[in-house]
Amino acid sequence: MARNEVRPIIKLRSTAGTGYTYVTRKNRRNDPDRMVLRKYDPIARRHVGFREER
Description:
The protein has 54 residues and is mainly beta. It has one domain (2-53): CATH 2.20.28.120. The protein has one helix spanning 2-6; strands at 9-14, 21-25, 36-41, 46-53. The chain has a 4-stranded antiparallel beta sheet with strand order 2-1-4-3, with no helix packed on it. A hairpin with a 6-residue loop joins β1 (9-14) and β2. The longest helix has 5 residues, at 2-6. The protein is elongated, with a radius of gyration of 12 Å.
């Protein structure tokens, strides 16, 4: 279906090196590049950048 092509499920991995991940969807038309979101890492106990991995 078209749902999986336009808004794929992506995994966001912490840049702090803790291995913590978030799972979300993104719109490929609006964000064709890899996403970086600033979110909370409970292992590091602070907000860090989470980068999209493929």
